[in-house]
Amino acid sequence: METKSENACFGGVQGVYSHKSQVCGGAEMTFAVFLPAEARDGPVPVLWFLSGLTCTHENAMTKAGAQAWAADQGIALVFPDTSPRGEGVADHADFDMGQGAGFYVNATQSPWSPHFRMWDYIAEELPALVFDKFALDAGRQAISGHSMGGHGALTLAMGLPGRFRSVSAFSPICNPMQSDWGRKQFTGYLGSDETAWEAHDASLLMARTGFDGPVLTDTGTQDQFYELLRPEALASAVATRRQEATLRLQPGYDHSYFFVATFMPEHIEFHAEALYA
Amino acid sequence: METKSENACFGGVQGVYSHKSQVCGGAEMTFAVFLPAEARDGPVPVLWFLSGLTCTHENAMTKAGAQAWAADQGIALVFPDTSPRGEGVADHADFDMGQGAGFYVNATQSPWSPHFRMWDYIAEELPALVFDKFALDAGRQAISGHSMGGHGALTLAMGLPGRFRSVSAFSPICNPMQSDWGRKQFTGYLGSDETAWEAHDASLLMARTGFDGPVLTDTGTQDQFYELLRPEALASAVATRRQEATLRLQPGYDHSYFFVATFMPEHIEFHAEALYA
């Protein structure tokens, strides 16, 4: 692992690191970790934040304002990249496919399968690395994300029972099997057999298994991608299951980081309650 | 004035606007305004935030986390650009001269003088525009900035007595007449007669006139540009004058927006005390 930068931030350290990912076919992956001051004294709880289409590790790290609230709560933050990148890694002309658009699945189809294994990267390889290198408490993990990253947070939380104590999402893609943000990517990455897609649809997972902990989502009523997100599918599944959840629609807000930053304090407070319970 | 974007943000609106600047020789200028929810009911106090070298209106708007705290206090924020830009506007190969590096002076020298009039832009033209277009209280203004923008905040605050109730700065260029961040630019923009520079050196202004209100500065002890900032010159002038001031050195912090974001809550609280006094 290589240290790209470390900056003092809210009494702790905001770092950026890179490493060669085995599960992503040897691609060089970059990620960011915020460690609060409390990490100097021992392992702290950790909140994973998965980002959306076109983002790298950097967008949420610089624009979401999360460090202020994480520092207040003594919680670490991990910001992974959204796909493998670089020469030799497949890409696509559209912003919603290929580099910056890994969709948190393990691709099985050409030309993606050698590198695009973001599920295993987030579920296995990156945790092994960060729990080895940083003072993070693997027994106290939570997960959140924005847009495609909200999809990732919800599907990883439900797909890895017992891993995360709480899950939240900002304007998540809730029902990708019924959305143009999903069908195109699942076809490309996973092939046309839709049974292979089912582990990656939050609304379907909610209907089938739910989540053993609290769920919080926020979506803006003026979100320019509202129809692609299909929050109604997740809301229906949550209600049918009687899942412990708070699903909020926020009047006037859109899909931007201004929206994410606005509700970040409440999301971190929500996770802190679960992580310190 | 043209609206480039408006996003709901912490209960208010983060907008980006552009206009043709007369004082900057007809250059199209972009600026950002955050209006807290309270602005719907009438004029609110305003904090100007001037940015540093290479920045546009956007850097502080997206990275400083200021809206969270301004919303708490019911204070508006204005983020101007740091220079005129565009075709026909002079530029320089170095990042610290020309576009993105206006230094908050009125250039008198070729090729800069037709457009680089940032003092008049911040002191006169942009205030006239924003007080006309937005619910801002011209009787309750404060000013802050980062690096070159900290220099701008301090020199404008002292150069316009009675305008601002309080002034703060993050890692300001404190003594540009004795720094490579200053002598080069003042020579280029203002010519070699150093008497023309004196209105633009915060330490010299502090020694001569001071500021009729409270002053707050923060500088990181690990600032990579520490020698260029010369905080010791301002500190000496403040002490000699017995100026009401809090000058802080923050251990371990550098010049980045992670540093700015960390201390933004205290700067906005500082200004709120003056604006609501």
From TrEMBL, chains A, B:
InterPro entries: AB_hydrolase_fold (IPR029058), Esterase-like (IPR000801), S-formylglutathione_hydrol (IPR014186). It comes from the Bacteria. The keyword Hydrolase applies. It catalyses: S-formylglutathione + H2O = formate + glutathione + H(+). The active site is at S147 (charge relay system), D223 (charge relay system), H255 (charge relay system). One of its GO terms (molecular function) is S-formylglutathione hydrolase activity. One of its GO terms (cellular component) is cytosol. Keywords: Hydrolase, Serine esterase. Its EC number is 3.1.2.12. NCBIfam families: fghA_ester_D (TIGR02821). Serine hydrolase involved in the detoxification of formaldehyde. Belongs to the esterase D family. This is S-formylglutathione hydrolase. It comes from Profundibacterium mesophilum KAUST100406-0324. The lineage of its organism: Bacteria, Pseudomonadati, Pseudomonadota, Alphaproteobacteria, Rhodobacterales.
